[in-house]
Design goal:
The protein is an alpha/beta fold and 556 residues long. Helices cover 30% and strands 17% of the residues. It has 15 helices and 20 strands. The chain has helices at residues 28-39, 56-59, 80-85, 95-108, 198-208, 234-254, 273-286, 302-319, 323-329, 347-350, 397-400, 412-415, 449-469, 479-494, 524-536, and strands at residues 17-24, 44-47, 115-116, 121-127, 132-137, 142-150, 172-175, 190-194, 213-218, 224-226, 342-344, 356-360, 368-370, 373-376, 379-382, 385-388, 403-405, 434-436, 472-477, 542-546. The strands form five sheets. Strands 1, 2, 3, 4, 5, 6, 17 and 18 form an eight-stranded mixed β-sheet that branches. The chain has a five-stranded parallel β-sheet with strand order 7-16-8-9-12, with helices on one face. Strands 13-14-15 form a three-stranded antiparallel β-sheet, with no helix packed on it. The chain starts with 16 loop residues before the first strand and ends in a 10-residue tail after the last strand. It binds flavin-adenine dinucleotide and NADP nicotinamide-adenine-dinucleotide phosphate (NAP). Flavin-adenine dinucleotide is lined by residues 24-30, 47-50, 55-56, 58, 60, 65, 67-69, 74, 120-121, 151-156, 199, 398, 401-402, 437-438, 448-449, 453.
Length: 556
């Protein structure tokens, strides 16, 4: 039974366990959701299929893995003590340190007792009689909860592409998103890596420094900006801490991508050639994602975007000694930034090493994988180990793996078969009392995700407290509000260059997945205001039902 039956359920007989809220996933989203709800007095059970907290940082242990939003910003802000006591070692902390931080948070806030690890949520069905979710886990447990929160992650469903012969390969195969915990020693090995997204761009320089030879199989070149990673000094950490109130406020309220940065005041074509080049040079030297903030129209205007893209293409040509290799590395089929921009340490320079070969697979793809080789264009590239840096079924992949049944037994997968439909990225009509953290239709992956996670968690927690205070039992997005929001998300995306790229934002990396621009691009500050206004107007666009015998108190 629910420890604190603040949102009353029914009496549950037999072996069905009950609580107020079930949270799926124990990454940064699930951990903070648990913390907030528990503080409000709700009983919560978290299920995590992995063996520990950390989510992304538990699974992605490939060489070179680190964040690309600066650690002083890519960290929780909900506890001032936490942000003052934790010392990040580098500008961009490596994966082991971020995982250590997640574990520290779990211990510091005593989260573990309410998390069940190594347990997957397989099925969830809404019972319209009792207004409860009935949840089944991989170990056969049956649970009931008034609310279900999906903190399943946007980049948590690693994707292994269908490549002829892959299962026949006689060497070891690794996916960056499921890296072995004991690490991998590539010394003296010939290694192949498929993919040139962020994961590959981080791991290629590190693997190259270890392997006898590294073959990089590239289909689409990506734009990458140097990280300029470095150890953080005490003074730098202190400067951040002194300014944290403003840095965090700005990231939440004023920014588009939840990163504190100097915002541009003009478009790229408002500057002459020399001034523009100087600005790009300055951003290149500074390093990191904020390169794209050099001007305010880089993702809106093709001609403006071309100036930034050309600058990076020139940099690639300067760094890479062999002109033919440099040409293959220069992206030419999408505007810069419309695929997630990458941040690297020595990526392009790695192609100057004698033990690294770039293999352009764009013309025909990989023909097949043989016992000990990757065959491309009739040539066999002999390898001992293969790394798949082939990404994720992003944003919807982990949600789709759960069999979710809402009103009338309709499944979420059926409803989303033409693309995800949500109101504010938080809820989907027909699926009452089901929340998604950083779901499609919210800024999510277009932002410093910890800021977006905290915003969603706070909104959901406040909403549940509001409902409890008013004796409300059910909340559900109205179809009308959802349709309007989906149209708005698409309209805003269409005003940008983003839809031009075959990106995972568009679902384009998964054969057969509908091409819809999934995140909301209006900016986190604007989005937060919308969410706050919705709540202030009594949860406009959501229908709320009181506990029987009272009736609907619906808003909009
Ligand atoms: P996750 O961390 O993905 O956690 C979700 C958890 O849910 C996982 O542990 C998963 O096992 C679990 N789960 C899923 N389905 C089930 C189920 N059915 N049952 C039980 N458990 C389930 N974002 C940034 O803003 N900045 C960065 O620098 C950055 N770097 C990244 C680097 C990499 C390599 C990757 C892959 C992503 C990066 N991201 C970054 C995005 C990152 O995913 C988010 O920042 C953040 O960690 C997401 O937290 P989350 O809790 O929402 O999801
Ligand atoms: P990704 O960006 O989707 O890249 C996957 C790569 O694999 C692409 O180059 C893709 O080529 C290639 N690929 C996929 N299927 C293929 C096939 N059948 N044959 C040949 N090539 C194939 O995945 P990711 O690199 O794991 O990154 C995903 C996201 O996670 C990032 O965009 C970012 O948001 C986050 N991330 C962040 C960091 C960081 O720096 N902190 C690091 C890693 C990941 P095409 O482009 O041609 O499809």
């Amino acid at each position: 039974m629910s420890a604190v039956s603040s949102i009353p359920g029914k009496n549950h007989a037999g072996s069905v366990e009950a609580c107020d809220v079930i949270v799926v996933g124990a990454g940064f989203a699930g951990m903070y959701m648990l913390h907030r709800l528990r503080k409000l007095g709700f009983s919560v059970k978290v299920f995590e299929q992995g063996g520990d907290v950390g989510g992304t940082w538990y699974w992605n242990r490939y060489p070179g893995a680190r964040c690309d939003v600066e650690s002083m910003q890519y960290s929780y802000s909900f506890s001032d003590e936490l942000q003052r006591e934790w010392d990040w070692s580098e500008r961009y902390a490596p994966q082991p340190e971020i995982l250590k931080y997640a574990r520290h948070v779990a211990d510091r806030f005593n989260l573990r007792p309410d998390i069940t690890f190594n347990t997957r949520v397989d099925r969830a069905e809404f019972d319209e009689n009792s207004n409860h979710w009935e949840v089944t886990t991989s170990d056969g447990r049956q649970l009931r909860a008034a609310f279900l929160v999906l903190a399943t992650g946007c980049l948590s469903n690693a994707r292994v592409p269908e490549i002829k012969g892959l299962s026949e390969f006689k060497g070891k195969v690794y996916h960056t998103g499921h890296w072995p915990h004991e690490g991998v020693d590539f010394t003296d090995q010939r290694v192949g890596i498929i993919g040139t997204g962020s994961s590959a761009i981080q791991s290629v320089p590190v693997i190259a420094s270890q392997a006898r030879h590294l073959f990089v199989f590239q289909r689409t070149p990506n734009f990458s900006i140097p990280a300029r990673n470095a150890a953080l000094t005490d003074e730098e950490r202190e400067a951040f801490r002194r300014n944290y109130p403003e840095i965090r406020r700005f990231a939440r309220e004023d920014s588009r991508n939840a990163i504190y940065a100097e915002l541009p005041d003009r478009g790229a074509l408002d500057d002459g050639e020399n001034a523009r080049r100087a600005k790009y040079e300055e951003r290149w030297e500074k390093g990191g994602l904020t390169f794209m903030l050099a001007y305010n129209n880089l993702l809106l205007d093709q001609a403006a975007n071309d100036t930034a893209a050309n600058f990076v293409r020139e940099k690639i040509a300067e760094i890479v000694a062999d002109p033919a290799t440099a040409r293959i590395l220069q992206p030419d089929n999408h505007p810069i930034g419309t695929k997630r921009i990458c941040v690297d340490t020595n990526y392009y320079a790695t192609f100057n090493r004698p033990n690294v070969t770039l293999v352009n697979i764009r013309p025909h793809g990989i023909e097949e994988i043989r016992d000990h080789a990757v065959r491309v264009g009739g040539n066999d590239y002999e390898i001992d180990a293969l790394v798949l840096a082939t990404g994720f079924d992003a944003m919807t992949g982990s949600v789709a793996k759960i069999d979710i049944l809402g009103r009338g037994g309709a499944t979420l997968n059926q409803k989303w078969s033409d693309g995800p439909k949500t109101y504010l990225g938080l809820m989907s009509a027909g699926f009452p009392n089901l929340f998604i953290i950083t779901g499609p239709g919210s800024p999510s992956v277009l932002s410093n995700m910890i800021v977006s996670i905290e915003q969603h968690v706070d909104w959901i927690a406040d909403c549940l407290a509001f409902m409890r205070g008013r004796g409300l039992e059910v909340i559900e997005a109205t179809r009308q509000a959802e349709e309007k929001w989906v149209a708005h998300v698409n309209d805003v995306a269409e005003t940008t260059l983003y839809p031009q790229a075959n990106s995972w934002y568009m679902g384009a990396n998964i054969p057969g997945k509908p091409r819809i621009f999934m995140p909301y691009i209006g900016g986190v500050g604007v989005y937060r205001k919308i969410c706050d206004e919705v709540a202030a107007k009594g949860y406009e666009g959501f229908a709320m039902t009181a506990r029987e015998p009272e009736r609907v108190v619906a808003t909009s």
